[in-house]
């Protein structure tokens, strides 16, 4: 019985950890995409100014 509880605890905690890692990866991807969009927008503005000026 003790071994069963220990096994359950290990599986349960591993599941929580995996979910936490997945959430962090999603958040990081979203931040990367937002940063990429901002970067592209800023370079587009600079490109337009270069052509004008």
Indicate the low-confidence ranges by residue numbers.
Answer: none
Q: In percent, how helical is the residue content?
A: over 70%
Number of DSSP strands? 0
How much of the sequence lies in strands comes to: under 5%
The average pLDDT is 84
Q: Please identify the structural class as seen in this structure.
A: mainly alpha
Biggest sheet features: none
Total helical elements: 1
What is Rg?
23 Å
Quaternary state reads single chain
Could you give the order of the helices and strands?
Answer: H
> Distance N terminus to C terminus?
78 Å
- Using the alpha-carbon principal axes, give the shape: rod-shaped
Question: Short description, anyone?
Answer:
This protein is mainly α and 53 residues long. The protein has one helix at residues 2-52. It starts with a helix and ends with a helix.
Q: What does this protein structure show overall?
A:
The chain is mostly helical and 53 residues long. It contains one helix and no strands. The protein starts with a helix and ends with a helix.
Helices and strands in order, then pairings?
Layout: H1 2-52
Which descriptors apply to this entry?
mainly alpha, 53 residues
